[in-house]
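[SOLVED] Need 3D model of a three-part complex

Original post:
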Amino acid sequence: MNEYVISILCIVAINTILALGLNVISGFCGQISLGHAAFYGFGAYCAAKLALLGWPFTATLLAATLATGLAGVFVGIASLRVRFDFLAITTIGVGFVFVGFVRKQKWLGGELGLTGIPHSGLSATEEMMLIVTAALLLVAFCLYLKRSWMGFGFSAIARDEDAAQTIAINVPGFKLAAFGIGTAMAGFAGAFYAYFSKAVLPDTFSFVQSVAILTAVVIGGMGSVIGVTIAAVILTLLPEWFRFIADYRLLVFGALLILMMFFSPGGLAGLLEKVSGGRKLE
Amino acid sequence: MKNRFLPKLVLATVMALAVTGAQAQIKIGFHAPLTGPSASDGKAAVVGAQIAFDWVNASGGVLGKKVELVVYDDQGKADQAIPLANKMIGQDRVAAAISGGYSLPTRSASPVFQKAGVPYFAAYAVHPDVTAGGNFAFRGVLLAQPQGQVMAEFVAREFGKKKIALVSMDNDFGQAITEGFKMAAPKLGLTLTKDFFFPLSERQFGSIIAALRAENPDVIVIAAYYFVGGPLVTQIRVAGLNQPIVGAQAFDATQFVSIAKQAAEGVFVVNALARDSKHPDFEKFRAEFAKRAGFDVESVGVLTYDAAMITADAIRRAGSEDPKKIRDALAATKNFPAIMGQVYGFSPSGEIHTPVEIVRISGGLHKHYKIIDDAALLKPAK
Amino acid sequence: MLFEVVIKSLVNGCMYALMAIGLTLVYGLLRILHIAHAALFTLGAYAGVIVANATGSIALGMGAAILSAGVAGVLIYRFAYQPVLKHPHHVPLIISVGLLIVLEDGFRILFGGYGITFNDNPYNTATVAALGITFNYVEIAMVGSAVVLIGTFMAVVNHTRIGIGWRATVSDPQMALSFGVDPIRVRYMNFLIGSALGAIAGMLLALMTNLVEPAMGATLSYKGLAIVVLGGLGSVRGTLLASLMLGLIEAMGSLYLSDHLDPNALGFLFLIAVLMFRPQGLFTRA
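Solution:
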């Protein structure tokens, strides 16, 4: 297996985990978040900094994941104060503040970011297997989560928050849990990314990246684990296949978004549901 | 028996040779931002390098073979660069690679080429990390920090021991220039006002200009790309500030003059392409570039042209397609007449040793003004 | 110096206001975050420059800007938003983002990534002195347009039949319909006016900097979102005040805080802080 295929598989896995995490927050629990890239970045910077301080691979991954989850819970408090569009804009703001802060801090490398991140100790193939396995495990986890009592709480909140409150669902608790889980996943992906690319820069985690992650979730079908996974894989591979139409790439991408929203707002999952006569794609 | 066999053998051999001959091209990998916000620079980069190889092939190629530029779009992003580099190495089997892109992707790709033992020539990416990973990476421009130091040297020589205001974009290029300038300033007797930084997206500089007016410097030194620098310089002149302006390499673009118009007159640009260059190949290149790109020559195009020419020359000198031998030949480059400036050679870590051209904008054109050529100043530290 | 900084930042704020009004109008009416509005800002600027360069008249350019953006805005409503109004919230949002990407890249492909400039633009170099500060003509125009146009709009909305009809449509389309107000006409007007104001802002910025580039609307658009929220649900007055406030905060920030935080992020930081204490925004009556 040549290096090209290995690196592509890593990126596919990372993007899938990112999309799955956002799917928990926005798809399962209905809390729209347009700043998910900030948590991706948080995890990446944590891991990079710890690795540069000499921490071993496993410890950094764990620490970065946990720290990001905590940060996510903190940001999730915003969802207790504002909803829908206001929440959307607040999360956009979180994204901009994260990048704006990180690019000015000398101890985080400033504009140049953190580089020279030490090797993970695994070979390229082993790294790839790790992240792909993690992605698959997380797909299974999300499927399980959806059917669990927590998943039920999430979907009640997504459907009608006030009604959920009246049947004694701990709305704040569940919202924060959704944020915590979803952002921890992003943090894990970010930590892996730090080792994969050996450099962590502010601009990688911009609003455009948040939109890209949201796109995967929306095109897959908000709430559908399999749909979101398929969408993340395809959207990552699409730019590879479209090299021949290189100049029109962004045009095609934007058009896809628009067309999908027109013809199947439920995303791929919605499409498959219609085609299979009502059977939901999990 | 023998007589019937021999012709078939000969035919088979000739066919085999013909087939391998048809595939005998030397592939050189190339990436540039072909889509996204820097797409125009990407286009300029590809055109420059392609002209170089077309001319090389027209005069017989290298080692009897044609050189082929294998072009990829790095989208200006870091994460695209790694699979691209892997593709060039693993699938295209390039003998060497040229970066026609910015620092983000170049920096990510560099360790990949280092590990694979394939020489990598960064035409204009300025981040230090590009060459830091080993001796397979080379750079065709001065690092931003030394550029800042040279700017300080120029300002001191041209204007004397004066009060300088540094106004710069807050990205890595701007910050490195500022750092370099501030390092050199004290020994040259230059005093500095407080630093002024602004984001790349800024277009209205009212508050900075008000503060500049209050500081009242003798010379204003600016590090900004044309789309921020243009408005900035216009607004500075409109506000009635008439101090001489010295711009960093980023003012090199023709668009800078289109935007700033009259305000650009008399502005000095350090480390730029003189549009009235006397290099023997320049006019021919300029015409061909304009024909292919649809716009007037930009230094990015010249830098990739030079990078391609130096690479072809290195392969010739190596006498082989072996990447390691090419790397050694690149490292041994001496006194190559690149359009951008004479290349004296490369340092052990791959940094270029070349003089700095200073232009002054006059009649709307970047015209040659001075060259700074002190070895002590310009020879790379490592 | 501080005085000059404050005054100049208010000029900036006026441009934000002209831009953000379009977003507020759409949000107030349809609860859609019209992110694609940034592309209309840019479209106006491109149309303006091209016509101005072709005819030699900047006034004609401005006319072209207003016309093209106004029409495009209405078309966007009719074909991109109207069909999906009944769908969940994120659908028009994603479509808006998709539109922005398509249009921005379209500009780059059609007009080149380096941007285009005015052949002959005397306005950003001609100056006038007032209050001890030098203003160029474009800055005066920015403040003037904001005051005149937004002022007129508010007067119309509050005191004329059309205005009352508009406000009715915002609060209750069904009721408005039963009173003979055509919500569709109102929406068309809405997009027309909002886009036209955005185009004016775009053209003025282009005159100011002498450059039109594909992505010139992007950052402004995100800030516009922050302004709309700060100003409160669809409130024109609130948007105006929030725009001026943002201009001021950014100017102060870029002078004193640029070592610690990117000035672009300041507006958002302020927004987040405000929303945590006043989730309904700064200027709405709760």
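Edit: Chain C is about 75% helix and 5% strand.
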